[in-house]
Structure formats: structure tokens, C-alpha cells
Amino acid sequence: MSQPLPDSIPPDLFAARADAIAAAARELALAGWTPATSSNFSMRVDSEHAAITISGRDKGKLTRDDIMLVDMQGRAVGTDARPSAETALHTQVYRRWPEAQAVLHTHSRTQSVASRLFAKHGVVRVEGWELQKAITGHTTHEGVLEIPVFPNTQHMPELVAHVDAWLDSGNPLSAYLIDGHGIYTWGRDMAEARRHLEALEFLLACELDLRRLKA
Amino acid sequence: MSQPLPDSIPPDLFAARADAIAAAARELALAGWTPATSSNFSMRVDSEHAAITISGRDKGKLTRDDIMLVDMQGRAVGTDARPSAETALHTQVYRRWPEAQAVLHTHSRTQSVASRLFAKHGVVRVEGWELQKAITGHTTHEGVLEIPVFPNTQHMPELVAHVDAWLDSGNPLSAYLIDGHGIYTWGRDMAEARRHLEALEFLLACELDLRRLKA
Amino acid sequence: MSQPLPDSIPPDLFAARADAIAAAARELALAGWTPATSSNFSMRVDSEHAAITISGRDKGKLTRDDIMLVDMQGRAVGTDARPSAETALHTQVYRRWPEAQAVLHTHSRTQSVASRLFAKHGVVRVEGWELQKAITGHTTHEGVLEIPVFPNTQHMPELVAHVDAWLDSGNPLSAYLIDGHGIYTWGRDMAEARRHLEALEFLLACELDLRRLKA
Amino acid sequence: MSQPLPDSIPPDLFAARADAIAAAARELALAGWTPATSSNFSMRVDSEHAAITISGRDKGKLTRDDIMLVDMQGRAVGTDARPSAETALHTQVYRRWPEAQAVLHTHSRTQSVASRLFAKHGVVRVEGWELQKAITGHTTHEGVLEIPVFPNTQHMPELVAHVDAWLDSGNPLSAYLIDGHGIYTWGRDMAEARRHLEALEFLLACELDLRRLKA
């Protein structure tokens, strides 16, 4: 995309972020976590901008040209392309966590089913798994990892408000589910975001398995 | 296949359709949705003709030579090859939806099991999933997506009549299941048909998972 | 394997059979149906000989050199290699079905679990699935496909006797399970044997899914 | 890693062990058994040293440079790299079984879920499966394979003591689970360790399936 970038953003920087996003998207698509062109991915470019997937593209075939620039209010910058409908949830992460560099939103079957199953509780409480230690800030299997489940809506400001309310109440937050929809998580670099996503998928799948076995 | 095409059909057009069908078939076979040479795939060539898979071929190894031409009554055109037994279900879609360009029929385990489980209700009602939006015409997770389940038969005119009766009663139709068998869906191009199929597989799998977990 | 073949067997014929077995083994291993060096595969060479996998090799890395010749009593011919422990079950198929050209024995999780679940009935009865038509001789979903489940034993003659008794009672037989163990099936060529195996895996998996969902 | 090896260890020997570990790790990661940088792997180098994975690396991308040398007390030798937290469990195996050459610790979903489900019994008892024969020392499906489940802890000496107590009571041990965590198994070479791991994953998965089906 011959996108006229703002002068403050080196083209190489944008290209590197776009390539990293596209590579992650292709790998997550291969894992089956982005069915039917769903899911969206972003990386911070600077304090005022993020690179994010253009809406509706097949995530298994993503390239640099499927990534666009937005400002932290989620508005397209230097392009007529339409950003993912849920861009506001990405920029919220970058605004609230200055150290966040990558945000991943996927739709795996496990994530979607877990969100439906736990929606009535408003939260999934995960404990007793060694793999909780893969989430930054968790150093033992003995703690409890809380993943809130917010109601789904097509109106993004409602979801933004749910996330803000959770954070403003002082609860820690590494990731959240949206009912019938999927998961959001993030990290201080793409590797950490990927590790968080992979661990959360595993932990949710294990919790569902335990319920199937104990029913 | 050195197939004598009707003069009205440019050889390049037929070849392009055949290649697109074969590519889709190989990818769907890799996903495990076409066990034991089952499943069939087609694309519209013009208002009077469609390209469709020849019966009984291994879908994982399909090439252009495994695709033949049929007219909209399902008769072979310019070849002695035998079209898929269910050709009549494909040409029905092209007759009833002038905008339909591709029809996909697969046999995944999820599709087959869901068809058996919901056969007694005659329909699967899917609601509350964000991914319903991947089906053209659905713009929110709040609607209900109805996928009818028709009784299986080896006599195609009965199935054609079931589909016609559903449509003639004014119900919307994006896809249907056949009991103990598989799914049919379509789109205005191959990409849309693929997106529909992928979304339906996901939604049916999620519904089965919820039942396993709540039982 | 520089195997001194009997003069009556053209080296090219043995090599072709060995290559076909090795190729099938690698593909079935990739599908996860041959865990931990289990499973064995053979093809008829002539009325008196078959080519069969040598015992204990990793099926995911099989080559022509992992295949040996046996006579129809299961004795090694022209080699000191040890044939699979269950060679007698392969040669039984070639003796009882003159048209059989390939025998496949795998150990998928679905096959093993189904064998345990249905062992007390002595048979799995499969009906109502379109994919039954993939088994030669079955032309409709309305018939019943019976897959007997024989008790496991480390003493092969007992298993041979179970198979003989089933056949001698006049029951049709396309495949059988051994309790806690795996499946045997065959075909008039490797493609038919593969189609039978793939269809049986699918049908058993669907039957297990239905039980999970209806429990 | 330009690691100054002790004079007694030929560089080619260390490199061969490191390459074998990295190759096994990549294959096990591909199978999904090492989520989110978890799991660790080692091989004996000589009676006093083992090669083991450095902590926290992505197991899907492991190379020779991600492997370090430790002594049999688990201390880094000739490097500042930090060995896996659970190194003490590896070196215990090499101390207690002089013939052990490779130790594998993975975290598959099946292993983790089975460990939670059977933790209250302290052991998984596996019987009636042909694939038990893939575990060295087991020659029939009629025996019982016992896999103890030890409580998880972040304090390795407690786990070492649990394993010692099991062995000192005279029970045979081919593998053990840690609650909410994963599995340890080993072999007289990497191929045997891999065969053990693959068979144990299969057997645990089958046992979980039987429970789901009989519930």
C-alpha cells in the first residue's frame, strides 16, 4: 500500500510492524484461530499511532499491504482503507498501557465456546495450572488468573466502557473475552503477546476439558 | 480432459473455473472435510452451464482434469464422464439464485454429526455468535441463523423438492444440511462460498461443544 | 534391502509394492493413526507371497527398505528380518479373499477407543450415514454396516480363528476391530483399502460423537 | 553458543546431543505439546554431564544454541545461561537410571488435564491397551501400567523427593505426571524416549475419551 505516512513515522518502522503483524496473522490462521476472515491484530508504531489489519481480509494470506495506520482515536491515517471494526479496543490498550506494543484478537472455537459458557459469571477463574506462569506477572500455579467476559455488542464504545470499568476498579487485566465472540490479549512485544495468547488458549481448553470430564 | 466445449464457452473460462474448483477441493480435503472421496464442488460457467467435480475422485489430489461441464439440468456436456450423483442440488442453486457463482458440498465430521443430532428438529438454529456476521445478510450476532436439515435419500428429486419447498415458503436460506450426510452452501464468488462454509463449520462445532458442556 | 527374491517374483514388482506400502504408511502416520511404531501394512505380491512391514519401525519414516517378503503362512522369505507380529492376520485376508491386494492395520485413538467401548457387544453397528457408501458393496445409507470387535490376545491363532468363525457363519466382513488395539481393513487395490480405512475412521468417530452428545 | 566445554567432553559429542534435543523439541512443538515456551528436554553427555534446554525459549524454533551443559547437580557448566527450572528432575533420572540417555518433559493438553483429573488418586492406572507394549518392559496388553501423579510445587526438591520415595518403595516407573503441569518420561536413547512419550500421550488420551463416553 503506497500509503503517505506522516513525516514523523519512518517508512521502515511501519513496514517492520506491518510485516510482523502479517506473519503473526498467518501463523494464527494456520492454527485455525481466525475462521472466515475474523480476528484482528495490531502493533504500536509510536505514542500516537498503531498499525492494524484492514477489515475483512483472509488472515491466512495476509501481507504488508493488508495493514494500515490509525491514530489512537482509531481514525485511518493517510489511507482510505477501513480499519477493523474493533480498532477502538486496540487503541484503548495502547492508551492504558504505555508499555503495550502488540494486541491480538482471535476467534478460536475454544475461546468462543468458553466465552458463552462463562458469560453468566462474567469471568473465567483459572487456577492450579503450571502454564499460568506464562502470563507476565504470574510466578506460580497457586494464584488465580481472572479473565473477564464482557457482553457482546456491535457498538464499540460499550465494550470500551466495560474494559475501562474493570480497570478503574483496580482489577489486574491480562486478557478479556467477549461473549460469543473471542479473546483480546497483548504484550510488551509480539513474542509476549503470542505467548499470552497461546497460554490462554491452552488454559481455556483445559478448563473446558475438565468440565466435560467431571460432568 | 480434451473436452469439446460448446462454442459459446471460451476454453480459458472453463479452465479458470476448473482450476478454482480443484484448488478449493484440495484445501478442503486437507482440512479433513472430504473423507473417502466424498464431497463435490462446482462453479457457474454461464447462465446455462456449470463446471463440477467428476464422481468418485480423491478430493485431496484434484486437478483441472477432474472437472467436467454440465448444463443446468445436470446433464454432461461434451464428455462421457459421470458427474457427481448430487449434481441436481448444485444446478438447483444456480437456477434459483442468479447471483450464485460457486456451490460447495462437504462431509466434515462436525457437519455429519450435527445433521444427525438436529434431524428430528428439521433445523439448526444458531444465535449469539459474532461469526454469524460472516454469512452474507447477517450484520449482528443478535439474529438467528436457520440451517434446515433435510432427510437423506439416494433419490435426488426428493432433496430438490425439499429445498424448493423451504424456499417457496419464503424462508431465507444460506446453507442446508442433509441428515447423516453433509452440508451445502454457496456464494457470489468462490471466496464468499468458502467464507460461508468455514463460518458454518465453526458455528456448528461451537453448538455441539456447548451441548457437550451443558449436558 | 538387497533381498534375494524367489525367481518367480520380478524385483520391480516387489519394489513397486514396497514403495506403495511405505508411501501409505507415511501418510497414515502423518494423520496420527500409527502411534509409537504401532500398525502394520501389506500388499499381495502374487498368489503365494505378500510384502509387509518389518516389525517395530517408525511408520512416519518408512522406506522401501522397511518392507520384507513373506509367504502366505507368514514366514519370512529370503531375509532374516522379523515380520510384524500380526502377519498371520494379513495373510489370512489374502487367503480368504483372492481379490484382496492390500491390507491396512492402524491404531488411531478413535479406533482404539471404539474397540473398548463396543467390545462387550462384540460388534459396532453403523447405520444412517451417507459415508457407508464408501465401503464397497454398500450402495445406500439405509443399510447396516457391521464391524465385529474381537477380544485382544498376544496369541495370533486365536484371532485368526475368530475371523474364520465370523466368515464361516456367512456374515459379510469389510473390516474388524480388536479390543483395545485397532482396526483391520483391506481392498482390491491400495486406493480401495485407503478409502475403506478413511471411511471407517470417520464413521467410528461420528458414532462416538453421537454418544458424547446424547449422554 | 561458543561454550567453553570441559576438556573431557568432545565438542562434537555435545553438538550431536544439542542437535538431537533441538530436533525433538521442534517436532514435539509442532504436535502442540509445548505451549507458550513451556517444556524442557535433555540428553546425557557422559556420567557427569547432561545437555539441556535453556529456560524460556520457544520450543518450535529451537536450535543447537538453545542447549546448555549442566552437571548432575543441575549446575550450569561453562556458561552463564540459566537452565530450565526443572533441571533437577532431569539429572535425577540420569543419576537413578545409568542407562537413561534422554529425558523429555512436555505439557500437552491431554497430559495436563489427565494430571488434574487423577491427582486425587495419586496415580493413573492404564490397562487393556495394546499400545502399553510400546513401553519398554511391557510385553502384553494384560498388565497394568501405573503412572504416578505428584503434587505440583515451585520448589524442585519436593518433587525430587516424591520421585525418590516412589522408586525407593520398589514400584516400577516409566513416567510420571505432575498435577496441573505435564509429564516426564525417558529412554535408553532419544528414539525410545520419543516412543514412550508418544505412547503415554495416546494412552492418557484414550483413558480420557473412555471417561467422556461412559459418563
From TrEMBL, chains A, B, C, D:
It comes from the Bacteria. Residues 19-208 form the Class II aldolase/adducin N-terminal domain. Zn(2+) binds at residues 105, 107. It is an enzyme of class 4 (lyase). GO terms for molecular function: methylthioribulose 1-phosphate dehydratase activity. Pathway: Amino-acid biosynthesis; L-methionine biosynthesis via salvage pathway; L-methionine from S-methyl-5-thio-alpha-D-ribose 1-phosphate: step 2/6. InterPro entries: Aldolase_II/adducin_N, Aldolase_II/adducin_N_sf, MethylthioRu-1-P_deHdtase_MtnB. The keyword Magnesium does not apply. Keywords: Amino-acid biosynthesis, Lyase, Metal-binding, Methionine biosynthesis, Zinc. The keyword Transmembrane helix does not apply. Catalyzes the dehydration of methylthioribulose-1-phosphate (MTRu-1-P) into 2,3-diketo-5-methylthiopentyl-1-phosphate (DK-MTP-1-P). The gene is mtnB. Pfam families: Aldolase_II. Belongs to the aldolase class II family. MtnB subfamily. Its cofactor is Zn(2+). Binds 1 zinc ion per subunit. It catalyses: 5-(methylsulfanyl)-D-ribulose 1-phosphate = 5-methylsulfanyl-2,3-dioxopentyl phosphate + H2O. It comes from Rhodanobacter geophilus. This is Methylthioribulose-1-phosphate dehydratase. Its EC number is 4.2.1.109.
